[in-house]
């Protein structure tokens, strides 16, 4: 069994290497950048920067589901009939839409550290701990993302007429099934453009985690810039990489939107 | 044949169902308790760790940081507005080249993080010191404050150009035609008819953009500008006191909330003729 897993692992490693758009066999850096500053391997910075792209994408992609989930429940709370629930959700969105993303990141990063540390010292365990920068970045970004996402989803909820809920009741569907089968499919279609904008913002906000030491695109290019003294080239490269990510994801979003609208009448 | 001799006397409506405590109410109260506990913890932390010495030392620094943030944001908004005018017009013009250039500018500055643009200007352009000294611009790119202002201006110009373009294009075509049929020259048409209607549409996005800039301005702290965030980081690095960040959060949150409400009242006042 373990042999199978290691075989699968090495196969996966080969796949990721072969399809790597920067440092793979047909990657940009290995085709055009060999024997230059961005060569892959020990002589250049290509592989380090490729790793940074991977970290940025992993962070953004792992923040997305968490942020969407929290945002969905906050939006549900904001349109509930109960006043206390609306108030609690309103406080959440007001705070995290009003704070700068950088400050939220610091508060989560150092706050979690202090919280865990004081918790551990309360049970008599004295040791300096460092919280994982990836985890802190993911938490902070998903909190910010969810508070914006809840606004987008709330306005989408308002665009769905009441008759849809009543139709669900008339069919004898349970509340949860009405939500899942009738409301959510329409909600996704209405909210998609807004969510696409939020995804672009998320992609840009991931650059902030370089400040707390996560080796994303900006951190890796910054290290390369400091060592090689070619600051302009490497920071320009960082901007271009972010731009490419934006172009690719706007193309992807267009495809998703077309897929979501496939049932609508063509005119 | 039988018939009803007496009408059924009027009866009160059935008693309203006693509102039992719903799941939503429980969840809401629980969450409010969590918020109240957090607020109480915050207040307790501030009172129990109160240090007059720190307050005297870092209080004025926070105020100066606040001033730096305010001046950076207001200057960049004003300069960005000036820069956004030609970009918006290029974006609306029929000229292919101007249109393409403006589109590229907007796309590039909206598609990359402000932090990366700041690094590119401060560290990237700063590495061309001899060339910059030759053209006499080194004094500008040497100062982190100027670089922060430049990157924020360029960034907000891209966003404001899109806001302006959207607002101008939202004015119906009939307004142009009406002005033409009255024989008004294009400049007067634009200034007296198109712009006032466009600016009302643009009011809300402009408010959002100012709030975004206030929040975005925090990143200039990374290149050693001592704005509110920079002073916070300075205070934290000296004292390792977590309160430093909490004070900054209170400052930022109150600025944004005050601005949001002031802007909403301005908007309500300016659009009162549109209310029905």
TrEMBL record, chain A:
Annotated InterPro entries: AA_ABC_transptr_permease_3TM, ABC_transp_permease_HisMQ, MetI-like, MetI-like_sf
Residue ranges constituting the ABC transmembrane type-1 domain according to the UniProt record: 53-245
Mode of membrane association: Multi-pass membrane protein
CC annotations in GO: ATP-binding cassette (ABC) transporter complex
Transmembrane segments: 55-77, 89-111, 131-157, 178-200, 232-256
GO molecular function: transmembrane transporter activity
Pfam families tied to this protein: BPD_transp_1
Location, primary (coarse class): membrane
Cell compartment(s), UniProt: Cell inner membrane; Cell membrane
Xref: SUPFAM superfamilies: MetI-like
Keyword match Protein transport: no
Keywords, in A-Z order: Cell inner membrane, Cell membrane, Membrane, Transmembrane, Transmembrane helix, Transport
NCBIfam families cross-referenced by the UniProt entry: HEQRo_perm_3TM
Family stated for the protein in its record: Belongs to the binding-protein-dependent transport system permease family. HisMQ subfamily.
Name of the protein in its database record: ABC transporter permease
From TrEMBL, chain B:
GO cellular component: ATP-binding cassette (ABC) transporter complex
Membrane topology: Multi-pass membrane protein
UniProt subcellular location: Cell inner membrane; Cell membrane
SUPFAM superfamilies assigned to the protein according to its UniProt record, in alphabetical order: MetI-like (SSF161098)
Keyword list, A-Z: Cell inner membrane, Cell membrane, Membrane, Transmembrane, Transmembrane helix, Transport
CDD domains referenced in this protein's UniProt entry, alphabetically: TM_PBP2
InterPro entries per the UniProt record, alphabetical: AA_ABC_transptr_permease_3TM, ArtM/GltK/GlnP/TcyL/YhdX-like, MetI-like, MetI-like_sf
PANTHER family: ARGININE ABC TRANSPORTER PERMEASE PROTEIN ARTM, MEMBRANE COMPONENT OF AMINO ACID ABC TRANSPORTER
Name the UniProt record assigns to this protein: Amino acid ABC transporter permease
UniProt source species: Metarhizobium album
């Amino acid at each position: 069994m373990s042999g199978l897993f290691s075989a699968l692992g090495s196969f996966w490693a080969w796949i990721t290497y072969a399809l790597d758009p920067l440092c793979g066999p047909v990657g940009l850096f290995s085709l055009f950048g060999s024997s230059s500053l961005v060569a892959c391997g020990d002589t250049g910075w290509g592989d380090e920067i490729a790793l940074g792209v991977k970290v940025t994408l992993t962070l953004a992609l792992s923040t997305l589901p968490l942020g969407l989930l929290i945002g969905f429940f906050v939006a549900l709370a904001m349109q509930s009939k109960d006043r206390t629930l609306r108030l609690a959700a309103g406080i959440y969105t007001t705070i995290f839409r009003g704070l700068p993303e950088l400050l939220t990141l610091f508060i989560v990063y150092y706050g979690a550290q202090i919280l865990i540390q004081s918790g551990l010292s309360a049970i008599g365990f004295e040791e300096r701990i460092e919280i994982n920068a990836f985890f802190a970045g993911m938490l902070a970004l998903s909190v910010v993302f969810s508070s914006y996402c809840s606004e987008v989803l709330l306005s989408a909820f308002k665009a769905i007429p009441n008759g849809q809920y009543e139709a669900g009741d008339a069919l004898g569907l349970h509340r949860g099934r009405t939500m899942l089968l009738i409301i959510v499919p329409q909600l996704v279609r209405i909210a998609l453009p807004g969510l696409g904008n939020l995804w672009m913002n998320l992609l840009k906000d991931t650059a902030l985690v370089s400040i707390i030491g996560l080796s994303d695109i900006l951190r890796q290019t910054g290290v390369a810039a400091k060592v090689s003294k070619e600051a302009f080239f490497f920071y320009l490269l960082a901007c271009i990489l972010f731009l490419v990510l934006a172009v690719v994801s706007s193309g992807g979003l267009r495809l998703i939107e077309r897929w979501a609208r496939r049932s609508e009448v063509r005119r | 044949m039988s018939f009803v001799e007496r009408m059924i006397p009027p009866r009160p409506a059935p008693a309203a169902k006693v509102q039992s405590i719903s799941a939503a109410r429980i969840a809401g109260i629980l969450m409010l308790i969590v918020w109240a506990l957090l607020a109480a913890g915050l207040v307790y932390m501030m009172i129990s760790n109160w240090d007059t010495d720190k307050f005297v030392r870092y209080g004025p620094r926070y105020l100066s940081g606040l001033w730096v943030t305010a001046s950076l944001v207001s200057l960049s908004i004003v300069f960005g507005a000036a820069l956004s005018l030609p970009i918006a017009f290029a974006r609306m013009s029929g000229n292919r080249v101007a249109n393409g250039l403006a589109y590229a500018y907007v796309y590039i500055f909206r598609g990359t993080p402000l932090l990366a643009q700041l690094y590119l200007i401060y560290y990237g352009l700063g590495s061309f010191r001899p060339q910059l000294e030759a053209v006499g611009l080194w004094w500008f790119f040497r100062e982190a404050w100027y670089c922060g202002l430049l990157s924020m201006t360029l960034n907000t110009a891209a966003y404001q150009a899109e806001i302006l373009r959207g607002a101008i294009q939202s004015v119906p075509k009939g307004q142009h035609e009406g002005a033409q049929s009255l024989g008004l020259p294009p400049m007067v048409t634009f200034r007296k008819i198109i712009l006032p209607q466009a600016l009302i549409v643009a009011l809300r996005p402009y408010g959002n953009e100012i709030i975004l800039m206030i929040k975005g301005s925090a990143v200039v702290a990374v290149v050693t500008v001592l704005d509110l965030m920079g002073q916070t980081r300075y205070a934290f690095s000296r004292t390792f006191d977590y309160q430093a960040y909490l004070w900054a959060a209170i400052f930022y949150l109150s600025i944004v909330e005050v601005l949001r409400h002031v802007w909403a009242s301005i908007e309500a006042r300016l659009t009162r003729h549109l209310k029905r």
